[in-house]
Design brief:
With 180 residues, this protein is of the alpha+beta class. It has one domain (2-165). It is 43% helix and 11% strand.
Length: 180
């Protein structure tokens, strides 16, 4: 229900970002297969922050030069995540939970499977995200996800959303070129 309210109330912002994204890359939305609850594959939707010809890899493996000017803004403000409210509405995701990984991130998938993380829906944000832990450290990420899920209360759920909205967490690391 919160996702529907967010989509309706956020529709002017979503529309404006679509127009800006179209002007920036010609393709404002980005769709990518991700691993969800019970390891079921679903299609994640985000605003595009990288050039359309960028390889579909985990963010920490992508080159920083692939990020567009608008993309830097969207990542810094976390507005690139807004279209995932659709994934929440469709039942593939929750507002709070472990960030869904790519099917190719086998180390993270194994670590999460061993810790029971796939028993829960993935989320737009969570404990790892507000603490700057990303998919470049699979074991730490899986352990943080499991710890969050064991202790997730309604209060913590709201806290993760609030801290994310306030800009806490650095987002996924981007590979930097030597000398940049």
């Amino acid at each position: 229900m919160l996702s529907l309210i967010g989509l309706v109330l956020g529709s002017p912002v979503l529309l404006a970002l679509c127009v800006l994204g179209y002007a920036d890359t010609g393709s404002p939305l980005f769709r990518q297969p991700r691993v969800g609850r019970a390891q079921r594959i679903f299609t994640l939707v985000k605003f595009r922050t990288m050039r359309p010809d960028t390889a579909s890899v985990a963010t920490h493996l992508a080159d920083a030069s692939a990020i567009t000017r608008l993309g830097h803004f969207l990542r810094r403000t976390k507005l690139d995540e807004l279209p995932q409210l659709w994934n929440v509405l469709m039942g593939d995701m929750s507002l709070v939970g472990p960030r869904p990984c790519l099917p190719s991130q086998l180390d993270l998938i194994e670590a999460r499977r061993n810790l029971g993380v796939f028993d829960h829906r993935p989320g737009i944000t969570g404990l790892a995200q507000i603490n700057g832990i990303d998919m470049s450290t699979p074991s730490l990420l899986a352990e943080t996800d499991a710890r969050m899920l064991r202790a997730l209360t309604l209060r913590a759920y709201g806290r993760y959303i609030l801290l994310t909205a306030l800009g806490r967490g650095a987002g996924d690391a981007i590979r930097r070129r030597p000398g940049s």
